[in-house]
Amino acid sequence: MHPLDNVIWQALTTRQTQFAEGDGRARRFVREVTLLGALLEDTPESYADFAHVVGNGGTGALFLDEPYEPREGWEFVAGAPLLQMVFEDGNHSAGRANSETEVIAKIAELGPQDSPEMIELTSLTKPGPFGTRTHELGIYLGIRRGGKLVAMAGERLKVPGHTEVSAVCTHPDHTGNGYARVLMMEIMRRIQDRGETPFLHVRADNTRAIDLYKLLGFRERRFGHFAVLRRV
Q1: Is 209 exposed, middle or buried (0-12, 13-18, 19+ CB in 10 A)?
Q2: CATH 3.40.630.30, the chain: domain bounds
Q3: What top-level class would CATH report for the domain 84-221?
Q4: What pLDDT score does 89 carry?
């Protein structure tokens, strides 16, 4: 299996086991880190194990190969078509971020003390599930204006040889300044400096973001589906 196939499962059973809960055919991240979970395979037995992991009334988010089909005992909360992209174009080296001197100088590393602002920004822009401990998954960088966090990007899933660029978002009042692009390129540069390959996930209908990612050297790898489910 390629490291980016069933990527959440791969993360929870390789490089990010310290954040994993569950056993058998289902895993999930600790709730405070993110809602993401995974099944070993799309079978009734795996869903039964996932039900044990999330508990009655619990919620979990899955990456699926096919659109979610109704299952007894589960409520579909939200979902979307999902595109996985991987950085392949060396001509778009993330090192080019060094030329953006003015914006680069404003980039700051984010940590636990910034978690409330990170949650506020992601709640507004909705780049994906983000919890009080999501920042523990990797490096997170941000840009401030007037002391307020207005843009950020970071790392989420980590599998052998690859790290995901995630939580790319900009406050609506500060779009058009190139913040997302510069933050992404800096995150990508750091990933590549570790000898790893950047990848990401994006809603398949978010053409504006996909166009940006292609300009940065990402290429489409596979289509899938995102589903948030609640155990009832």
Answers
A1: middle
A2: 84-221
A3: alpha beta
A4: 72
